[in-house]
Amino acid sequence: MTAPRLEAAGLTFRYDAATPLVEEWSASFRAGEVVGVTGPSGRGKSTLLYLLGLMLKPRAGEVRLDGVPVHGLTDGARAHLRAHNFGFVFQDAALDQSRTVLDNVLETVLYRGGDRKASTGRAEELLEQFGVSLRANAKPGQVSGGQAQRIAMCRALLGDPQVLLADEPTGNLDPESSDVVVNALHQQAARGAAVIVVTHDPALVARCDRRIEL
Q: pTM value?
């Protein structure tokens, strides 16, 4: 059996001193699988994604990428690692309202020093795959919530991440669009990524390789 691509060991996190939101939580995620994380609202599912994606530091425990502990790196080193190895789909899409759809998709690749011209063709292919190619020059405020979520998927996938983290990626989508997104999650896993999805969508959970209940 292959070693885990991403591991959490004894993670503990709290926003206040009294109540831990995540406590001594451990799990491993292997390349090639799509794992659904489910549970009632308020259980810390989104917070867990931020911990796994190195956007929050745990109070205790560690995160390992390909066996190497990475949670204790400096902020700059964590940002560099995120840009080169992780893809994120936030629940609210988190698009820059001042920039075009295409520029939003290119954002992460350009941040890590990629070539705009070389990346634009792939970005346009992704926008077409997700059915939003006609809106490439629009601003995010000119697209629907469902389109914004698909644009966020394009941005996350453009860098071919080793770890793909998605928070309710089908939450604003109709069944046909949801099917496109779920297929893309599995395609990225087939490329060697560990894919971790927070969801309340039973149809998405049913298509995950494994489920973790919080």
A: 0.92
